[in-house]
Amino acid sequence: MLLVTGGNGQLGSVLKQLLPEAMFTSASELDITDASAVTSFVTLHKIDTVINCAAYTHVDKAEEESQRAFLINAEGPKNLALTGVKIIHVSTDYVFDGHSKNPYLEEDTAIPQSVYGRSKLAGEEAVMNHASAAIIIRTSWLYSMYGSNFVKTIRTLAMERDVLNVVSDQIGSPTYAYDLAQVIVRLLPTLQKNIQQVYHYSNEGACSWYEFAKEIVQQCNLPCQINPIESKDYPSNAVRPSYAVMNTSKIKSHLGIDIPHWKESLKQCLNQF
Ligand SMILES: NC(=O)c1ccc[n+]([C@@H]2O[C@H](COP(=O)([O-])OP(=O)(O)OC[C@H]3O[C@@H](n4cnc5c(N)ncnc54)[C@H](OP(=O)(O)O)[C@@H]3O)[C@@H](O)[C@H]2O)c1
Fold first, then answer.
1. Using a 6 Å cutoff on CB, does residue 52 contact ligand 1?
2. CA distance linking residue 268 with residue 119, whole number of Å
3. φ and ψ at 188, to 5 degrees?
């Protein structure tokens, strides 16, 4: 039996559409930080494979809730891995420091700059240390019609305001959760015993948050003006990488896929609203 944890999150909600036979759990149904609950659940439901979409994703709040972030993002995946299941674990571009000039490769050294990034890296390490079959998939700037995300926030704010200031000195690649979910489903059959792989997946192309916001407003035909600002003028608790683009060649060649450009996938997502 296949289990998807974090079933009510953005990615979990999209996977629900693609994997009707899998089990999906929310935090209240299965708290992944509770080791004995995880073991009992896996045994009771004969779970052999887990897609772990459960995570602490509040990047700024994590700076003040470090213990909780590590509990969910590191202990949680460790508890799952220790049960002996095969696991696809979702991680983040925020494990990198952002000082690179070229898209990050899977084997590049991860030097996270925030509590969130460090807790996610600790989760990757726990999975690699304890699961005999593990795929880590790092993604970035995830959005969908579910939960809260940048696309929904900008769309809502642009309906209410004439002008928005958006950071233009952080570069990354938006990822439509539906595209990522399809790739995860395609990875499932390759998840065999003794496999340990890391892959990067985001949509094709790169942009700043400012360019992303401009495209959202344009595709929604909203009259709101978007102004570029620097990160230093938009103080936040967590340090975010200024360049977080990931090289996706490995997954493209492994699965023999083309990845849609982020502007194309944004259109697909906005059509759902
Ligand atoms: N969002 C992004 O921009 C982004 C970027 C890069 C990587 N990622 C990674 O992508 C993955 C999916 O992200 P997402 O945006 O889908 O996250 P999300 O919408 O915040 O969903 C995370 C889910 O985790 C569940 N959860 C929290 N604590 C839990 C616990 N102790 N036990 C079990 N479940 C728990 C929550 O469940 P309840 O709803 O039931 O409370 C929530 O639905 C995460 O690993 C995240 O780190 C996200």
1. no
2. 32
3. -50, -50
